[in-house]
Amino acid sequence: MKRIFELTSSDIMNMKGRELVETIRESEGRTVMAETIVTFPTPIYGVSNPELAAAFGADLITLNFFDFQKPFIFGIDDMDANISKGPEEIIKLAEKATKNSQDADYIRNLKEIVGRFIGVNIEPVPEGMEYVEGRKLSRENLEKIKFYGFDYVMITGNPNTGVNADTIVSGIEMCRKVLGDDIMIIAGKMHGAGSGNIYDPQLLKNFVKAGADCVLIPAPGTVPGIDLSTAKKMIDVVHEAGALALTAIGTSQEGSQKSVIENIAVQSKMAGSDIQHIGDAGYAAGIATPENIMALSIAIRGVRHTYRRMAYSIKK
Predict the structure, then answer these.
(1) Nearby residues of 261 by Cβ (< 8 Å), 6 or more positions away
(2) Residue 135 confidence (pLDDT)
(3) Digit-coded pLDDT (tens) for 175-193
(4) Residue 79: exposed, middle, or buried by beta-carbon count in 10 A (0-12, 13-18, 19+)?
(5) Average pLDDT of each block of 10 consecutive residues along the chain (316 residues)?
(6) CA separation (Å) from 257 to 33, 263, 301?
(7) Which is a Pfam family this sequence falls into (predicted)?
(8) Could you give the CA distance from residue 37 to residue 280 in angstroms, rounded to a whole number?
């Protein structure tokens, strides 16, 4: 089996969830995930944030703020718009999002463009919490995940969503029932999200028991109290339960100097992380400082495998 940084675009297009899990496991802690917000204008005109993340070395790209009812990706769906022409151009963008919701090839086309695994954040917000319906973890939205052909789903909480351990467990169970085994399920919390962090080893076991293929935790140095020792203990629990572990940089440190990213990356690897995630807040929310995506990759797998991944942007 190929390691993840050896996969070509055609390999990625044809791989299923179980194969993806095993490929990551075989890669020995050298998998990079970049999270990108798709609803913000991009820092580089004419280039979407997923494309930019792929160009700087990400293997997996997670779409944040993706609305299943009105899907829209800046840098791709807005390229024919000219706002200076007036309000009718805004209407065209709204119409485009509505049209995208019925396009079964929408995400598959994005995969063709970036040549990477594409996943999506979906949030198990508590009952009664006001939140965008298209971003909630619901049966309707999970069916859309299958409809669009996402490779994986990440169950977590953005700040102030009220997401907690109980809603995450319920969300995992629903995901597994609806999605089956062809889509990898990642679950956990990378920061407080307004309702505290998860440190209890039993909660991590509960995530795996509910059906998570991979459990995410904060990377060492990203939230108070998570150091190398604590992260290693948490990751050991996840591995013993039979799942992969993901360490996340979700506290805006993705916009820090390169040395901070490198330090977090090496500590995460020492702790046993299988996937290293870098968040979406660089100069402005939307994508990490692109050079930091590359710095993370080089820190955990060197320039050889980083440049290989960066070069595998075309279909082979």
Answers:
(1) 249, 253, 254, 278, 292, 295, 296, 299
(2) 93
(3) 999 999 889 999 998 876 5
(4) exposed
(5) 91 90 97 96 91 96 96 90 75 88 94 95 85 92 95 85 84 95 92 61 93 96 93 97 97 95 98 97 89 98 95 65
(6) 19, 10, 19
(7) DUF7916
(8) 6
The residue with tokens 């990108």 is 36
Place of tokens 């293997």: 59
On whether the CB atoms of residues 98 and 91 are closer than 8 A, the answer is no
pTM for this model (two decimals): 0.94
Task: Give the Cα separation of 81 and 83 in Å (integer).
Answer: 6
Angle subtended at Cα 15 by Cα 118 and Cα 288, rounded to the nearest 5 degrees: 25
Show the CA angle centred on residue 158, arms to residues 149 and 49, nearest 5°.
55
Question: Tokens 């769906």 identify what position?
Answer: 77
Which residues have C-beta within 8 Å of that of residue 303, sequence separation ≥ 6? none
Per-residue model confidence (pLDDT) at position 22: 96
Query: Cβ(25)–Cβ(244) under 8 Å?
Result: yes
Can you list the domains of the chain with their CATH numbers? 4-68+108-311 (3.20.20.330)
Q: Which residue has the tokens 């089996």?
A: 1
> For residue 219, what is the DSSP state?
P
**DSSP secondary structure letter of residue 241:** T
* 248: enclosing H helix or E strand: strand 244-249
CB 107 within 8 A of CB 148: yes
